[in-house]
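new request in #modeling-help
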Amino acid sequence: MIKLTFVQADGSRIAALAEAGDTVMQAAVAAGVSAIAAECGGACACGTCHCVMTPEWAKRLPAAAADEVDMLEFVIDPQPNSRLSCQVTVDELMDGIEIHVPESQI
Amino acid sequence: MTSVATAKIDLAPHSAAFAADPYATYALMRALPGAYYYEEIDTWMLTRMADVEAVALNKTMLRNNEAFVSEEAQRAQQKALNFHDMPHHERFVQVNLLESEGATHDRLRKVVFREFTPAMISRQREAIQNFVDGLLDHLCERDEIDFVDDFAAHVPGHIIGRVLGVPDEDCPQLRHWSEEVVRFFDPGRGDADKARAEQATKAFYEYLLTLLAVREKAPREDLLSRLIAHRNEGRLSQDELVSTAMLILMAGHGSTIDVLGSGMHALLTFPDQHARLRADPGLMKTAVQEMFRFDSPLPFFHRFATEETEVAGQSFPAGTRFGLLYGAANRDPARFENPNLFDVGRMPNRHMAFGGGAHFCLGNHLARLDMDVIFSSLNRRFRTIALADEPVVYKPGLSVRGPKALRVAWTRA
C-alpha cells in the first residue's frame, strides 16, 4: 500500500492508503476527505476534485493532459500546482506524498 | 441470458402502485443476484450503486450507438422511436450535446461548461431571489396553493431563459415550448403529442433565429451572444448552437420543477427534518443535496455497451442496452445508511442524481441555486407549511419522478 496524506484547509491531516493504479481522488474519497467532492465520479467533467501539490511533488508527477488543464481554469482559486485528483494516478514513487485540498470545491 | 428471478418481479412503471412507491420495486430488483432484464424495452436494468456507477464511468459505454450500428439499423431504430416524420425534432432534439459522444461531445461541452460553473451561476442569485420574491408576494395572500403548478413551475424555465438571454416577457412562452418539446419522450404519447412536439420545436427554432439575429447585431452579456461568438469562431455549427440552446432549456426545466415538488413533499413528510433545517439554515446545502438523492427527478438513463463487458457479475455482448436506475442506486443501503430516511444533514451523500462520467449534469449548480433560494425564502416567509391534500400523486413512468400536484397550506411569518 502507498501512503498519501491529505492536508485540509484548516491544517488538519488525513492519512490514506492507496494501491498503485488508484486515482488520488479515489484514495481521498475512500479516506473520507470531504473537500474532494468528485461529483462526476472521475471523468474530468465537473471540476470538483481540485487539489494542490507541493512544488517538489508537482515536478515529479506526470504533467496534466489538455482536458485537465482546461478544467483547472474553472476551479475556485487555481494555483500553479493545482491538479484534478481524478486525473492523477497513484504509483509506488508517490509513497509519502502530501496533497493539499481546498476548503470547498463550489 | 435469462434470469428466472426476473420473472417474479413485475416492473410496471406506468402503474399507480409504481408511481406511489417505485422504491419498493427497486428494492426487489436490487436483491436479484444480477441485473434485471426488462423485456419491454430490451434493456438490462441496474439498481445497485456499484453497478450503476461502474457503467456510467465506463468509457466503452455510450449513450449513442450510432457508430456501432449500420445506417439501415439506425433508420430502423429511428422508425421504432417514431420521429422519422419530425424534421425539426430530428435535427435539433435527437442530435445534441447530451446525445453526442467522443470528440463532438468534448467540443460542445467545452463551449458551454464555463457558463455553468459555480462562479458564473452565482451571478444569477440576485435575479432568482427577486423573481421568487415577486411570485411569493402574490402567493402569500392565499392560504393554500398548489406548490407545483402555482409556484415551482414558474421558476426554473424563467431563470434558464434569463441565463440564455431571452427577454423576461418571452420566458413563459419558452417554458411552454419546452414542455411541448419533451412530450415526445412521454412513454404514453400519442400522435397529437408528437405533432405538438414537432410544432413547438419548429416555433422555438424560428424564435431563436430571430433572437440570434438581434444578438448578432448587438451582443449582450448572455449565453446566446457568447454562443454566437463561438459559432463565428468555428467551435460549433449553427445547428449545434440551436440544439444546445434547446437542450439547456429542456434539460433543466421540468426536472427542477419535479425536484422542487418532491423536495417540498419530503420536508412535509419528515417534519423533524424541516424543523431542523429551519433552526439551522446552514444545512441548506446538504438539504438540497439530500432532496436530489431522496427523489431523483431523472431516475433513468441508458447506455449501450460497445464491446463485450461484465456488469453485475454477468457477461454481456456488445450492443447490449443498460438502464441506469439512478433513483434506485440512490436508495442503495450498501451506499447509504437508512436510505429511505430523509436526512437534511446527510454527509457524505455521494449520490448519482446528476449522473456521472462525461455526461455529468452541466446545470447542477443552477438547479441547486434555484432550490437554495426557494427553500430559504419559504422558511423565512412562512411560519408553517403543511400538506393540504393527501395522498400526493406522483407522475407515472420510469424516466421522471415528481409530484403531479402538491397542495400546501401556509401561514405567514
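bot summary: Residues 238-269 of chain B form the longest helix (32 residues).
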